[in-house]
UniProtKB/TrEMBL annotation:
Signal sequence extent: none
Organism this protein belongs to: Streptomyces endophyticus
CDD domains according to UniProt: LuxR_C_like, REC_NarL-like
Gene3D superfamilies linked: 3.40.50.2300
One of the Pfam families matching this protein, by short name: GerE
Domain Response regulatory: 12-128
Modified residues (4-aspartylphosphate): 63
Source organism, top-level taxon: Bacteria
Record's keyword terms, sorted: DNA-binding, Phosphoprotein, Transcription, Transcription regulation
Lineage of producing organism: Bacteria, Bacillati, Actinomycetota, Actinomycetes, Kitasatosporales
Start and end residues of each HTH luxR-type domain: 157-222
Name of the molecule in the record: Response regulator transcription factor
InterPro entries cross-referenced by the UniProt entry: CheY-like_superfamily, NreC/VraR/RcsB-like_REC, Sig_transdc_resp-reg_C-effctor, Sig_transdc_resp-reg_receiver, Tscrpt_reg_LuxR_C, WalR-like
Amino acid sequence: MGALSEPGRRIRVLLADDEAMIRAGVGAILAAGGDFEVVAEAADGREAVCLAQAHRPDVALLDIRMPRLDGLAAAEEITATVPGTAVAMLTTFSEDAYVARALGGGATGFLLKSGDPHELMAGVRAVAGGAAFLSPKVARHVIDGLGGGRLTREAAARQRVGALTPREREVLGLVGAGLSNPEIADRLHLVEGTVKAYVSAVLERLEVKNRVQAAIVAYEAGLLT
């Protein structure tokens, strides 16, 4: 996804929603941003997977409740078969079970249709750049709802983070703050390839699947306070 830093490079987006009016509205919002290009639209999850494989967009923006194949299952297939495509969910539903499954399936963004248009654009830009983005309205549900008591989770998170090197903890804190790899590289005066290697090492050592799950660990370990 480093190509997104090229001047004039537009973020290529796949929209998937079974309601044509929603697709039109989201498309209009992205068009107003000036740096997005909707390369394909899907009316169901199965079509979304096929179009993602065909067009290989930077971001697949998926509704959850769609016919033939729901957005959560589609997200899992896209992340497994089109690794260069970031997945973000755009939905009216913020129940913990949906959020947990989406993140567990590889999505790095979770946005609500009721959110501000600027939030939508910021979220798509973030996941396209390799960062994670949660709607503020669901962030608290994610922190509090992924199992166990809060104190137990905090202790477990601190123990996991304690196994990281000082530099890895520093990188984890910036991932938790929502920074992309280029932004972390700029902040720490490192080359982007080095940051990418640090992020990969952090995800592996924390035994998490993506940056959102790493950000949750960072939050619970107190790195963001």
